[in-house]
């Protein structure tokens, strides 16, 4: 990046580090921070939407919907998260390839399952072998997002269902007595209040989600943990920038990144909780009224 980086072996320390920290591989490390932030930005609303749908299904008067909602939440909560993070991408990937295989290769003879191998025709591979690298990366990232959203959506559903139950039933009955439909009562009475009860649980879920992002490393995505391990390992004289084992320093940087992320998140969530509690008949709302008196 710098003009003096032609021969790192003769550079003084500060110039050596300036060149070392601006190599292409280090820019991959910096870009991996964006990968983590992008994952959080996409998964959080998806998980919340799934959670809201799951909570409504759990409280539905329809037996089938209620069964689907409770099965989804119970199954995800009862199985270790890492199992879903590893199973969902593989299952979705093979399901999509199987469907494409049946469409694009109708003359295929034999089963796609051959012992422990799953074999489809070349036209059914997702992505195609001829696809550029970014397409493969995008597909892997999409599978990871799906796995994260399904797992955290189940926990969000349980939290939101509890928040809906915490809103006094008498308020809903009063709204309906005034002529509101159930949908109107839900939108005007329950929806504005349930977030006060749900936010503590959702904030904890957000913190857990941020701490779960290093699992991208297990899914084959080159995230911040992957690059910290790769760049921190000892490099011999065969490399342009040889150095001893610096993994402790790289992982210390990862630690600081996550601490800053959770600290900023907590500040934002605290302010959001104060705003939502204003005027509400909750402990936080009562504390605000006493403080203002």
Q: Walk across the major sheet and give the strand order.
A: 1-2
Cα shape: flat
CATH class: Mainly Alpha
Radius of gyration: 25 Å
Which strand-content bin applies to the residues? under 5%
The stretches of 5 or more residues where confidence is low (pLDDT under 50) are none
Estimate the mean pLDDT confidence: 85
Which range best describes the helical content: under 10%, 10-25%, 25-40%, 40-55%, 55-70% or over 70%? Answer: over 70%
CATH architecture: Orthogonal Bundle
Q: What series of H and E elements makes up the topology?
A: HHHHEEHHHHHH
Number of domains: 1
Query: Can you count the beta strands?
Result: 2
Find the CATH superfamily.
Answer: MetI-like
Task: Look at the helices and sheets and give the structural class.
Answer: mainly alpha
- Stated plainly, the CATH topology is called MetI-like fold
Instruction: Count the DSSP helices.
Output: 10
Q: Quote the distance from N terminus to C terminus.
A: 60 Å
What do these coordinates show?
The protein has 293 residues and is an all-alpha fold. It has one domain (20-292): MetI-like (MetI-like fold). It contains ten helices and two strands; from the N terminus they run H-H-H-H-E-E-H-H-H-H-H-H. The chain has helices at residues 13-20, 24-58, 63-78, 81-104, 133-166, 169-177, 182-212, 224-232, 247-277, 283-292, and strands spanning 113-114, 117-118. The protein has a two-stranded antiparallel sheet with strand order 1-2. A hairpin with a 2-residue loop joins strand 1 and strand 2. The chain is flat, with a radius of gyration of 25 Å.
């Amino acid at each position: 990046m710098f003009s003096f980086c032609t021969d790192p072996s003769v550079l003084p320390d500060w110039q050596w580090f300036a060149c070392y920290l601006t190599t292409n591989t280090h820019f991959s490390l910096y870009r991996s921070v964006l990968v983590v932030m992008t994952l959080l930005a996409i998964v959080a609303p998806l998980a919340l939407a799934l959670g809201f749908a799951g909570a409504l299904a759990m409280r539905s008067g329809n037996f089938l919907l209620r069964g689907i909602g409770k099965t989804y939440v119970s199954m995800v909560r009862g199985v270790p998260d890492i199992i879903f993070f590893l199973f969902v991408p593989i299952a979705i990937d093979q399901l999509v390839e199987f469907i494409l295989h049946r469409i694009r290769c109708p003359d295929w003879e034999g089963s796609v399952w051959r012992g422990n191998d799953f074999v489809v025709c070349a036209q059914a591979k997702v992505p195609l072998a001829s696809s550029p690298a970014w397409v493969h990366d995008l597909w892997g990232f999409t599978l990871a997002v799906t796995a994260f959203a399904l797992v955290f959506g189940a926990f969000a559903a349980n939290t939101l269902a509890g928040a809906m139950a915490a809103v006094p039933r008498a308020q809903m009955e009063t709204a309906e007595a005034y002529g509101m439909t159930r949908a109107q009562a839900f939108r005007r009475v329950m929806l504005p209040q349930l977030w006060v009860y749900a936010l503590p649980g959702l904030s904890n879920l957000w913190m857990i989600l941020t701490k779960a992002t290093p699992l991208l490393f297990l899914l084959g995505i080159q995230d911040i943990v992957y690059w910290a391990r790769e760049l921190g390992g000892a490099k011999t004289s065969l490399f342009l920038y040889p150095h001893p084992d610096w993994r402790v320093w790289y992982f210390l940087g990862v630690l600081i990144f996550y601490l800053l992320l959770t600290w900023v998140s907590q500040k934002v969530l605290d302010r959001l909780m104060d705003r939502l509690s204003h005027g509400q008949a909750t402990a936080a709302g009562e504390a605000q009224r006493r403080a203002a008196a």
